[in-house]
Amino acid sequence: MTSLAAAVAIAAGLTACGGGGANQKPSTMAKIACDESFETIFEQEVNVYEYIYPKEDVMVYYVPEQEAVDSILAMDGVKGAVLTRQLTEQEVGYLRSHKKVVHQQKIAVDALALIVNPANPVEILSKKDIAEILSGEVTRWDQVEPSKLGEIQVVFDHAQSSTVAYMRDSLLGGKPFGPNVAAVKSNPEVFKAVASNKNAVGVIGVSWVASDMSGRQMSVEEMAQAVEKSDTTQLDFSSDVKVLKIRGNDEVTAYRPYQAYIFDGSYPLYRSVYMVSTAPGGTVAHRFYSFVTGFQGQKIIQMSGILPATVRPRMAVVE
C-alpha cells in the first residue's frame, strides 16, 4: 500500500485546488478522484447527474491513477475513486480499520485504441507488432509493412498513467519501453500529436476517439433524455485519426475496438474499470456512486464508446 503520508499530501492538494472552500455546503457536495484516462466519460456522468439533481454538486479531480488511490486512502474529503483496479485487501483493511465502509463495483470495460494519422497506410497491428514497437525492436514503419514513412514515434498520455502501466505490464512483462516511446501531458495532446504527425502512433482510451472531438457534442438535456432509453444505436470513431485494427497473438482476424468486439473478447487490448466509494448512505457521494453504477450512469458509459458493466453493448459497425 502507498504510504499514508503520500496519500495525505495528495488529498490535501486536491482539497486546496477544489475551489469553494468553506463556502461549500458539505451536505450537497461530493469529491471524487478519477483516473484521468476517463475524463471524457466522467464529465458526462457529472453533467447529467447535476442536471437531474440541480441542488447537488460533484467535484471530480482528474489525476494519475495512483494519486486517485492515495486520495481516497487519505480520508480527507475525497469519498470516491475511479480506477482500473479494485483496492487491494490491504487498502480495504486500512480503510475499514478507520471505520470506513468500502463499496467497489465494476462499471465498465475500457479498450485501448492505437491511432495513427490518416495518411499512414498501416491498417492492422498484431499484439506482437505492438510489443516490438514498444520495446524498440521495431523502429520504422517499413519494418511493419512496405511504407515510405520513417521512424515510429509512440505517444502516450502521461508517463504515470494507467494506460502506460497496462501496455508495459501486459505486452512487455514490465520491461522498459524503447527510446521511441514518449509521453505528452494529456489525452487530447495524444490526439493532436497523431493528427499532425504521419509517423506517430498514439495509445489512448477508446472514449477519446469514439466521436469527432472537433464536432458537435450532445447537450446535457439530450444526454439526460438519452439515458432513459434502451436503444443500441451505432457509434463510430473520429475521422481526424485512423483507429487501427488489432489482432491477438495466433489470431487470423483483426478488430477495431467497437463495443461488441470488446464484449466478446475479440478485441485484445482491454481492461476493467471500477468505482470505489467510502461515502456513508444518504450523502451526495453515495447517491452519485449509485447513479454511476445504476442504469442511467451505465447508459452514459455506453454512449461514450467503452463497454458498460451492466448495459448490453452497442452493435458494431459492419466493415
What is the tally of beta strands?
A: 12
Shape: elongated
Query: Which radius of gyration do the C-alpha atoms yield?
Result: 20 Å
Uncertain stretches: 1-6, 14-26, 212-216
Q: Averaged pLDDT, please?
A: 85
* SSE string: HEHEHEHEEHEHEHEHEEHEHHE
In helices, the fraction of residues equals 25-40%
Largest sheet: 10 strands, mixed
- CA-to-CA gap between the ends? 45 Å
DSSP summary: helix tally: 11
Question: From the helix content, strand content and strand pairing, which structural class follows?
Answer: alpha/beta
Percentage of residues in DSSP E strands: 15-25%
List keywords for this structure.
319 residues, alpha/beta, 10-stranded mixed β-sheet, 11 helices, disordered N terminus
How is this structure best described in words?
The strands form two sheets. Strands 1, 2, 3, 4, 6, 7, 8, 9, 11 and 12 form a ten-stranded mixed beta sheet that branches. A two-stranded parallel ribbon has the order 5-10. Helix 1 packs across helix 3. The protein has helices at 4-17, 39-52, 65-74, 89-97, 127-135, 162-172, 187-196, 220-226, 259-263, 284-293, 295-304, and strands at residues 29-35, 57-63, 80-83, 103-116, 124-126, 153-156, 181-183, 200-205, 242-243, 245-247, 270-277, 307-308. The chain has 319 residues and is of the alpha/beta class. The radius of gyration is 20 Å and the shape is elongated. Helices cover 34% and strands 20% of the residues.
